[in-house]
Amino acid sequence: MSPAFADRGAKPLPLRLIPAEGAEAALAALPEAEAAWARLHGFAGKLGESVILPGPGGAASGALFGWGDARGRRARRFALAVFAAKAPEGPWAIVGDLDPDEAEEAALGWLLAAYRFGRYKAAPPQKATLAAPEGVDAARLLAIAEGVYLARDLINTPANDMGPEAIEAAARALAARHGAEVSSIVGEALLEANFPMIHAVGRAAAEAPRLIELTWGDEAHPAVTVVGKGVAFDTGGLDLKPAAAMRMMKKDMGGAAAALALGHMVMARGLKVRLRILIPTVENAVSAGAFRPGDVLKSRKGLTVEIGNTDAEGRLILADALALASETPPALMVDFATLTGAARVATGLDLPPFFTDDEALAADLEAASRRARDPVWRLPLWDPYDEDLKSPVADLDNAPSGGFGGAITAALFLRRFVGAGIPWAHFDINGFNNSAAPGRPKGGECMAARAVFSVLEARHG
User: Fold this and answer.
1) Which one is catalytic: 73, 172, 241, 459?
2) Is the pLDDT of residue 45 over 90?
3) Per-residue pLDDT at 159
4) Residue 305 above 90 pLDDT?
5) Is the per-residue pLDDT at 226 higher than 90?
6) Please, are residues 6 and 94 in contact by the beta-carbon 8 Å criterion?
7) Residue 217, number of CB atoms within 10 A of its CB
8) CA 180 to centroid of chain Cα atoms
């Protein structure tokens, strides 16, 4: 499915935003019958409450929506999506005072609430559509929503239909749409091309591991490289996950999904960058060929890695991809990965931490996160914890013992493979809405990509 705005020529129904601090005055300004109807239903302008106004023959003539106070609106993302999910069928248009940021958020939240995943089971569509608010760049919001829809579709598709081959097919389809170029290195060719850790992690699976590369844009423009973790399914390997932990591992390619979603936004909006997307994609399976605890792997960079735990596989495949990306240093490099449970313990399920040593990039990301209503939170690349990565037999251990600061030590591991002086940010995302929220249905979610897009748009729009 694709997101869409209502045609303004269809005479949309008015959706009046009523702030709590001026609710009585706003009701007094309405026709007497509408005001009486609202009061009868106890409408007071609280954020998220609504009342449908009856018209001739019982059909809706419009609606009132509680816009709360400014502090409440800041605290609750995509508040208007509450109404979108339950509104009567038909086109609607917002009536009320919105600043540009509020108008964008309201419109995007409505679009995101309309998402349905219907590949295996019919999903009733959202009945109500919204006319793009005045002053909003509708094409921009549609491009962003399309990127989010793409990521959600990829993550929601189970591993039997979304293995490494299907992830590559998705990248090729996106490239074909935007005139980008795609190549891949598959199976034993990974060894010949010096991607030993991608090969080791994926060699036990029925579908061959691979490294996918998508490039787009004018080579004269600043280079931006995006790396996405593409573990199509993670059993944990020989250090097998328990059943409950394995149940949701179709989402372990959420980093790859976010990378492709960001790529769509960048290409659809024609940003002035030379875009490069790298997706190392594997299935971490169990068979006679599986890599083992205690194995020592040599990375593309030449660093050796002792395998402390086969369930810390994502950082291994990312390491080879980050090393490749660093060989042609970009102006900016980001990676997205569903990397650690420790990140979820630290900041919860819907606030992804990010890590960077670049203060200007950190400031831009924090501001963009607020502007795009795509929350991220900076955690430190705490240098003293680098000692935890030591191994007695290799340069690095992929799974330091102790269990404390796991998101930080994972980020420090990745930093070992990033070239000196490259502005880089690592996002440890959940990639999934464990429960439904306004504009965010339960299921796969595109996290942090909108914030990064906002930074790129500001720098290279």
Assistant:
1) 241
2) yes
3) 98
4) yes
5) yes
6) no
7) 22
8) 21
Q: Is the C-alpha dihedral spanning 353, 456, 216, 193 positive or negative?
A: negative
Q: pLDDT value at position 237?
A: 98
96 has a pLDDT exceeding 90 = no
Please report, rounded to a whole number, the percentage of residues in the chain having pLDDT higher than 90.
Answer: 91
How many separate helices (H) and strands (E) can be counted in the chain? 16, 19
196, 211, 237, 418 from 296: Cα distances, Å: 11, 21, 15, 21
Q: Amino acid identity of 247? A: R
C-beta separation of 111 from 141 below 8 A: yes
- DSSP category for residue 393: S
Measured CA to CA in angstroms, residue 4 lies from 115, 116, 119, 232, 443 at distances of 10, 13, 19, 30, 21
pLDDT at 457: 98
* Sequence-distant (≥ 6) Cβ neighbours of residue 352 within 8 angstroms: 343, 375, 376, 377, 427, 428, 429, 430, 447, 448
Q: What is the DSSP letter of 440?
A: B
Mean pLDDT along residues 183-190: 98
pLDDT-based confidence at residue 194 (cuts at 50, 70, 90): very high
Q: Give, in order, the Cα–Cα distances in Å from 102 to each of 66, 108, 366, 440, 458.
A: 14, 10, 18, 17, 18
- What is the gyration radius of the CA atoms in the chain, in angstroms? 24
Q: Pick the catalytic residue from 315, 344, 415, 416.
A: 315
Over residues 370-394, the mean pLDDT reads 97
Interstrand relation of 230-234 and 274-284 (parallel, antiparallel or unpaired): parallel
315 annotated active-site: yes
Task: Please check the confidence at residue 70 and state whether its pLDDT lies above 80.
Answer: no
DSSP, collapsed to helix, strand or coil, labels residue 426 as: strand
Contact 263, 452 (CB under 8 A): no
- Assess whether 241 carries a catalytic annotation: yes
Beta carbons of 85 and 129 less than 8 angstroms apart: no
Let me know: does 453 contact 265? Beta carbons within 8 Å. yes
Q: Is pTM beyond 0.90 here? A: yes
Q: Note the maximum CA span of the chain.
A: 81
Q: Could you tell me where the DSSP H helices lie in 222-339? A: 243-246, 254-268, 314-327
Residue with tokens 């800041």: 74
For 93-107, what is the mean pLDDT? Answer: 91
C-alpha closest to that of 78 among 12, 130, 20: 130
